[in-house]
Amino acid sequence: MTEEKKNKNSDHLSAEGRFFRDIDVEFLIHELKDPVAVIETAVRMLLEKPDKYGPLTGRQQKTLERALRNSKKARGLLADLLEVGRSDAGCFQCCHFNALDEVNAVLMETLESVDADLQENLGGAASASEREALLVGGGIRIGCSDGARQVRLCQDQTKFRQIVGNLIKNALQHRRRRLDIGMDCVEDRLLVEVVDDGPGVEKENRELIFMRYTRMKPCATLSRTGHGLGLAGARILARRMGGDITVKCDRGPGAVFRFTLPLVFEQPEGLSEQGI
What we know:
- The protein is an alpha+beta fold.
- It is about 50% helix and about 15% strand.
- It contains 11 helices and 7 strands.
- The strands form 2 sheets. Strands 2-4-5-7-6 form a 5-stranded mixed β-sheet. Strands 1-3 form a two-stranded antiparallel ribbon.
- A hairpin with a 2-residue loop joins strand 4 (about 180-185) and strand 5 (about 190-195).
- Helix 7 packs antiparallel against helix 8.
């Protein structure tokens, strides 16, 4: 192989590409999706068919409901990994959709694993005003400009939902009391801001939290710990879709995660159009 060809190949191994050089995602999903599905189905049957498997005590039911939520969470993680892998291979399925509708739907899905009681109450809300009151009571506010309320993106809907879901889940896990979601349109781009009132992120760590497998040590102003996959994967997806994710902490306590995205999909340079 010539030196020029070696350099060319090396250029294609971007930071995002190396995320999947180390992980065989397809193998991982193949090996894990079936056992996770079996666990989820078994727990569902115990919860939904007491006439067949016997009645449950209150404590048993709560334990099984928790197991069911976490099996769904594991299934979601596998789906997230698959979507990041597909984006790395240049596979996008674009369609038109309303951004605000998707943000609301993702919030409901995320609350199911983080605050199941609030999610259940929201599902039973009789009106939009009642739903908003329940959200405010739970410390969650959604603000949307008129332009963003009406805009229809032409993007990969599944990947958009994954990115927003990661940002909302991250904020719910680290907030003290409040979570604010703001949406706006600036020229030909959608802006989604997810703001929490948690411990924030120290300046020197604001890029590290987007690096895979990086776990931050808790300190006076930082308690964001995890496996370092959620935010890393979300930024990879955002950039593959022509957007980006940044974080800042300049509004007092907490952190502001800003997700920007073109209203119409922009094919990243160097990726094929396969799957679009």
